[in-house]
Amino acid sequence: SITGPLADATRLAHAIAGGDLTVRTTAVGRDECAELLHSMATMRDTLARFADAQLALAAAHDRGDIDHALD
Question: What is the pLDDT of residue 66?
Answer without folding.
Answer: 87
